[in-house]
Amino acid sequence: MEQTAKKKIPRPSAAKIAAEVIKEFEGYSSKPYICPANIPTIGYGNTIYPNGERVTMDDPEIDKAEAEKMLLDTIKSVEKQVKNVVEVKLPAHQLAALISFTYNVGIGNFSNSTLLAWLNSNPDFPRIPEQFRRWNKGGGRVLKGLVRRREAEIELWEGTSRYI
Q: Of 148, 65, 66, which is closest to residue 104 (Cα–Cα)?
């Protein structure tokens, strides 16, 4: 009897998984717009260009290819930021959840969050998902889109997401 070797299907990287979540929840805009937190935004939720300049309402339109490049550049940066503050090793799907979360709330907020404190003290802590849920407001009010996004990030965290 001949044994056939099982082909290992490569799993997507944390950055690739996070990009899909971010694209779905941020959506694409070729023109600058004011997000619910009252910040000029363009592309897939970018508030800052790769060169460090802030998006303004007077900026020219960008096409999808440019928006995609900005998204991927920003994700690389956010992934490094997340890895710098997370003290435990995480599987790709959990890292992707944190990249999506941090892309949305910013590294300063994530760095000072109870979510990060709990994660670093016990990555298997079953109450970590409730900390994602706390971040559901924009401009001081609960936003349905953020509620849905946090649930998608929790599914990623728990390994039950359609993105993985």
A: 148
**CA pseudo-torsion sign 18, 68, 30, 37:** positive
Close Cβ partners of 100 (under 8 Å, ≥ 6 residues apart): 18, 21, 22, 25, 149, 152, 153, 156
26 is catalytic: yes
Joined tokens for residue 48:
């800052």
3-state secondary structure of 32: strand
* CATH 1.10.530.40 for the 14-158 domain, yes or no: yes
Domain extent listing, the chain? 14-158
Per residue in 20-76, pLDDT (tens digit) is 999 999 999 999 999 988 899 999 999 999 889 999 999 999 999 999 999 999 999
pTM of the entire structure? 0.90
Among the options 24, 26, 130, 153, which is catalytic? 26
In the prediction, which pLDDT does 123 show? 85
Report how far residue 34's alpha carbon sits from residue 40's, in angstroms, rounded to the nearest whole number: 5
Distance CA 31, CA 29 (A): 5
The type of residue at 163 is: Y
The pair of structure tokens assigned to 105 is 């709330």
